[in-house]
Fold this sequence. Notes:
Blueprint: H1 10-13, H2 21-47, H3 52-68, H4 77-98, H5 106-116, H6 119-141, H7 146-238, H8 242-269, H9 279-294, E1 297-302, H10 311-332, E2 336-344, E3 347-354, H11 361-366, H12 374-385, E4 389-394, E5 400-407, H13 426-429
Amino acid sequence: MDVVSAPLPHADRNVPGHASPVVRAMEIGQHAMAAVLTGVGVIRAAGDGTPIAAAVLAGLAILAVHTAGTILPSRGSRRLAICWLVALAVIWIAAVAVSPEFIWIAFLLWLLAGHLLPVPWGLLFSALVLAVVIVAPILHHGSTSYATVFGPLIGGVFAFGISRGYLQLLRDAAERERLVASLTQAQHEMADLQDELALAQRESGAVAERTRISRDIHDTVAQSLSSIRLLAHAGADRSTDAGAARALQQVEALAGGSLADVRRIVADLAPAELEDGPLATALRSMLDRAHDEAGLHVELHVDESLPVLPTEVEVALLRTAQSALANVRLHAAAHRVVMSLIDDERSVRLDIMDDGAGFDVTAWEADAGSASSYGLRFMRARLRELGGGLDIESAPGEGTAVSVQLPIRPHPGAPASGPVAGPASERETR
Length: 430
């Protein structure tokens, strides 16, 4: 333990190499002052007639106890520092009993008292040290003077006050270091977040392109093959020419086989999360993972009247739910998450509610450039492309509710990202 850092925050004094330049300078100054004042005391004591051996021994005892303050264990360092200060004062009193010239060490004790002790106890300790300084000359020489009373008194007041000021300086320096470390960590987290956002954008773009290709194949090749098969089947039934009927049946078979291949390709281009079942199944799997990995209590409510949704709507809802749940796990510190998939006549609504920390929605809306809000803004932009919207209700300490609404059939002017089947051919091509 170093005495200078004992009053500082625990994290700042226990990390090796963490001491700031100000703390190190204070440590060096403290040891230099102890050595100089002790040397002055030894020299003056020897010059005043005290046996040299006794004066040197007293000086070495003071330096030994003072040096011990740098090697005490760090655990419980504040209490040990106070005990060490008391031990140093006791050794100093013994040295003063040998020679009154060791009263010079009182200035070091006053500095340490202001540094290590609370103000009331520091003042009491300083008063006891001053009493020893005043009484020692009387006991040794039988007299004293105004100089030996008011000089130490004024010096003690200044030493105690300067020590309190330096202590505040050290605390401010430690707080600045903590803030710098916090900002550095925040910068690293921001860089990681930007990497995650870039990856999410790439994945989102890949999914959008896959679903666009899937939609185009579905709406062109698949529809054409379906029509060819229907026309060939109808022509074969009406034809009286055996050769023509056989040719039409072959055309129907080829169209059917090609249509099966197209369906397989469309299915392969669909998002992996939706391969094993509908949207509700994917949401349930996602919530179960959140429960297993983060310990969240999760609930999922799905309207039984919810119709079969187009792929682009399912993809948008799934990606929005993933982003919202990621925000809950990263930022909300929530214990419970409830998702509801609701049939809202011509639209579908996905509500996601948590009981986490919440945030100031007004401030979030105003802070358009904040990196911490990119995820929600990406959600909103993706939903607007499909003619939908994103509503957020939250307040600090009151959790967050995110409501997503999408038309079951995207607006004609909105870009689509998945296959949309028309009513006439829905049964034929799905």
